[in-house]
Design goal:
It is a single chain. This protein is α+β, with helices and mostly antiparallel strands. The protein has one domain: Aminopeptidase. Helix content is about 30%, strand content about 25%. It contains four helices and five strands; from the N terminus they run E-H-H-E-E-E-H-E-H. Strand 3 and strand 4 form a beta hairpin. The radius of gyration is 15 Å and the shape is globular. The N and C termini lie far apart (about 50 Å).
Length: about 140
C-alpha cells in the first residue's frame, strides 16, 4: 500500500524541522545561530500561505507564498528532500499554493526559479517572463 503525503496550510511548525529543510538545498548557512530558529518561526507565521508536506508525520517538503492579499503573490521556497523528489510532491505543493491564492482572488503569481528547474514550473502552467530580470538587494 502506497503511503499518502499529507499537505497542510500552517501558521506554525517546528522551526528546527523547517530550518533543516531550508538547509537541504544549501539555502541557509549550516552554523547554529539561534536567530535562525526565530527567523524561521517568523517566515512560517507571516507568510500569506505556508504549505508543509508530510509522510508519516515526517516533513518531506514545503513551499510558501507572500502577497498583498488582493492583487499579486510570489511563490518561493519550494523544496522537497532529494530522496522524495520525482513523486509529484513539489507539484502538489505548488498546486496547493495556487489553489489557496486563486480562492483569495489573487490576479497573478510570480516566482523565481533556480537554474535548471524552469521546466518543472512550466509543466505546472508557469511561463518564463521575457524581457524581465530578477533583482536582489541584500540588507546586511
Amino acid at each position: 500500500m502506497k503511503e499518502e503525503i499529507e499537505l497542510r496550510i500552517v501558521k506554525e511548525a517546528d522551526p528546527a524541522e523547517i530550518l533543516a529543510l531550508y538547509r537541504h538545498p544549501g539555502w541557509w548557512q549550516t552554523d547554529d545561530n539561534p536567530q535562525y530558529l526565530t527567523t524561521v518561526q517568523g517566515i512560517v507565521a507571516n507568510s500569506f500561505c505556508f504549505v508543509t508536506a508530510r509522510l508519516n508525520g515526517k516533513l518531506v517538503g514545503m513551499g510558501r507564498a507572500i502577497s498583498d492579499g488582493c492583487s499579486d503573490a510570489y511563490i518561493q521556497d519550494v523544496v522537497v528532500y532529494s530522496e522524495f523528489r520525482g513523486q509529484g510532491i513539489g507539484g502538489r505543493i505548488v498546486a496547493k499554493l495556487v489553489e489557496f491564492l486563486r480562492a483569495k482572488g489573487i490576479q497573478w503569481i510570480g516566482l523565481i526559479s533556480e537554474p535548471g528547474h524552469e521546466d518543472f514550473y512550466e509543466r505546472l502552467g508557469f511561463a518564463r517572463m521575457q524581457d524581465y530580470t530578477p533583482m536582489l538587494l541584500k540588507m546586511e
